[in-house]
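Q: What residues go here?
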């Protein structure tokens, strides 16, 4: 409850926001594969990572990288 009082969102929303942010940084700044990124961020598999990422950005990790990231 205190966490929500200070930042106006739940701890789970904050964790999601930070995981998506870290994912984006890795997609843009590295040439790691999407599978490697999902593994480094402790997702159980690439499918779960892709679904999670799409929920936060409306793009798949590969689409995001093509549009904004590492060439």
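A:
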């Amino acid at each position: 409850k205190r966490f929500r009082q200070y930042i106006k969102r739940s701890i789970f929303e904050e964790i999601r926001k930070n995981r998506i942010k870290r994912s984006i940084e890795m997609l843009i700044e590295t040439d790691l594969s999407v599978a490697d990124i999902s593994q480094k961020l402790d997702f159980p598999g690439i499918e779960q990572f892709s679904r999670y990422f799409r929920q936060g950005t409306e793009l798949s990790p590969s689409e995001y990288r093509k549009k904004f990231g590492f060439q």
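A: Context that may help when evaluating the design: The chain has a mean pLDDT of 90. The chain has five helices and no strands.
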